[in-house]
Amino acid sequence: MTAVPRIELAAGYSIARIVNGCWQLSPGHGGGPRSKREALATFSRQVEHGYTTFDCADIYEGTEELVGRFRDNLPDPGSIQVHTKCVPDKRALATLTDGQVDAMIDRSRRRLRTERIDLVQYHWWDYEVPGVERLIDRLLAAQSAGRIRCIGVTNFDTPHLEAMVEAGAPIVSVQAQYSLLDRRPERALGGFCAERAIGVLAYGVLAGGFLSDRWLGSEPPVAMNRSEVKYRLIVDEVGGWNGLQSLLRMLRGIADRHTTSVAAVAARWALDRPSVGAIILGTGRRARIGGRKASLGLALDDRDFEALNACLGRLGTPPGEPYEIERDAAGPHASIIRTELQEAGA
Fold it and tell me: How many Å apart are CA 252 and CA 94, to the nearest integer?
């Protein structure tokens, strides 16, 4: 059995380098288990094989409750690590109060059935709206009181992350979209995180499934779930469907040399990025243990990287900082993002 490598995010706190992502388990994202019972069985199989770290969010409807139920039924609930997010609604940012932040944290604790959350990652929709310092202060207070172990951020750009770190915020991780199709973290974020020992938790490493054998030689999809729409927009940013096909053909050649899959090569590439502490792979209808083992057991060589770099040079990557184009209210990426989800997740 391939051992699942781990990385220490903070002193005495380690996580698996492949994290079980729960975004797909919330309504509308597609690909999740057909029932809660099936999801819990998938969780069990993942943990049995060493994938003990889970990523959910207060705005991923139903996911905190599901992970909490699973955790509560384990012989040793402390044997898994659970990460969640604190994401105030965009329209509520300007009026966010201490009490509201405290209530959000306590709600996540109740759902997750734990006194102390391992990692809370916060998000701020609009940098022009003041108030993020209040959120940080309340998270620090919760950490001091033992309600949170570690603090991270999600979808922050480099300047704002740097400003918070320079102000003394003890950020241990930043969750960022990072894949062969989206290498925005390589412009500045990755270097800053490497310097400050902040772990990048990379999501979207398979681009919603587009970086897999399923789409090699196929026509573009017509009907798509929200996840596929999100990553199809990224595909369009870097060369469109023809560009994706050229990348998939190259990945298939590398996969053939190593007797593995396109997805395994794409995941291994992300794991090998110097700033990446762990990658987040979605929990679907199967535990996909074989695919995860293939990624962990794969060693890309100089020939592989030469082919990858040549193809990526022709494709390019989306413009700007991580999550920059997603913040452009007039752009197509923002049009599919829901910014008022606290009520749905209540």
Answer: 49
* Tokens matching residue 229: 């729409």
Whether residue 262 contacts residue 252, with contact meaning beta carbons closer than 8 Å, is answered with yes
Strand residue runs (E) in 283-326:
none
> What pLDDT is recorded for position 1?
45
Residue type for position 339: T
Which is nearest to 4 in space by CA: 70, 52, 67, 39? Answer: 52
Strand partners, 174: 153, 200
Q: What angle do CA 156, 333, 335 make, to 5 degrees?
A: 115
AA letter at 109:
R
Q: What angle do CA 143, 148, 153 make, to 5 degrees?
A: 95
CB-CB contact of 341 with 89 (8 Å): yes
For 105-121, the pLDDT digits (tens) are 999 999 999 999 999 99
Using CA atoms, how far apart are residues 248 and 262, in angstroms rounded to an integer? 7
Do residues 279 and 270 touch, judged by C-beta distance below 8 A? yes
Give the length of the chain: 346
If DSSP codes are grouped into helix, strand and coil, which group holds residue 274? Answer: coil
Instruction: Judge whether residue 194 has pLDDT over 60.
Output: yes
pLDDT digits (tens, 9 = 90+) for 136-164: 999 999 999 999 999 999 999 999 999 99
CB distance 173 to 148 below 8 Å: no
User: Which ranges of 118-172 does DSSP label H, i.e. alpha helix?
Assistant: 132-144, 158-166
